[in-house]
Specification:
Radius of gyration: 17 Å
Strand order of the largest sheet: 2-1-3
Helix content: under 10%
Bound molecules: zinc ion
Shape: elongated
Strand content: 25-35%
Number of helices: 1
Distance between the termini: 36 Å
Structural class: mainly beta
Length: about 70
């Protein structure tokens, strides 16, 4: 079964990542994907870029990994 990767961040955001065609379809050199897709979550150790202000622009800096939303 083909796999859709999702990146799960500590802030709770979930973003679509790479779509991986399975070996079976890949080796058949087809452009098809399976009817059903396996979802694979990859957990990030940090917040997504949307929830991490750029250091030059931040008005408030949190330390100790509090929620920053
Ligand atoms: Zn597949
Ligand atoms: Zn986020």
């Amino acid at each position: 079964m083909c796999t859709q990767i999702y990146h799960v961040y500590q802030c709770g955001c979930r973003m679509k990542g790479e779509f991986k065609q399975c070996d079976e379809k890949y080796n058949a050199e087809t452009n098809l994907q399976c009817d059903r897709t396996n979802n694979d979550d990859v957990v990030s150790r940090n917040y997504c870029s949307k929830h991490m202000p750029k250091e030059g622009k931040a008005t408030t800096q949190y330390v100790g990994r509090q929620a920053n939303r």
